[in-house]
Amino acid sequence: MPIMKTVNIELGMPSISEALVKMDRELAVARRQGYSLVKLIHGYGSSGAGGDIRIAAQSKLRELADQDKIRACIFGEDWSVSDRQTWTLLGKHPQLKQDSDLERRNKGITVVVV
């Protein structure tokens, strides 16, 4: 079984609240399924408008981390070997070095350690 599940919370252009509900639900499902990590695809407003789902999701993830409801979150722009949290995860799970978003500074994703 792969250790990281990918979930697209911007698919279908949901409202911010719908996207956050989907994020919470998918994090719970991933935990039950035994995944260690979830890669959230939330987009970043590349069309010149938007980015609201990204901002809301990252804010909610910070809250969840502060409340110890998730272990950590690594924003896409930090998903790099030069980031301490990423480097630690790569040491524990070398297969993550194959992740297509690693080193791409992709603001449209966040890696969540559940």
What features would you describe in this structure?
The chain has 114 residues and is α+β, with helices and mostly antiparallel strands. It has three helices and four strands, in the order βαβαβαβ. A four-stranded mixed beta sheet has the order 1-2-4-3, covered by helices on one side. Helix 1 crosses helix 2 (52-66). The longest helix is centred in the N-terminal third of the chain and has 18 residues, at 16-33. It is globular.
Q: What distinguishing features does this structure have?
A:
four-stranded mixed β-sheet, alpha+beta, 114 residues, 4 strands, globular, 37% helix
Number of strands: 4
DSSP helical segment count: 3
User: Helix fraction?
Assistant: 25-40%
Q: What value does the average pLDDT take?
A: 94
Describe the biggest sheet? Answer: 4 strands, mixed
Number of domains: 1
Shape: globular
The fraction of residues in strands falls at: 15-25%
Poorly predicted runs:
none
Rounded to the nearest angstrom, the distance between the terminal CA atoms is 16 Å
Q: Strands of the biggest beta sheet: in what spatial order?
A: 1-2-4-3
Q: Note the run of SSEs as H and E.
A: EHEHEHE
Instruction: Round the Cα radius of gyration to an integer and report it.
Output: 13 Å
**Derived structural class:** alpha+beta
Oligomer: single chain
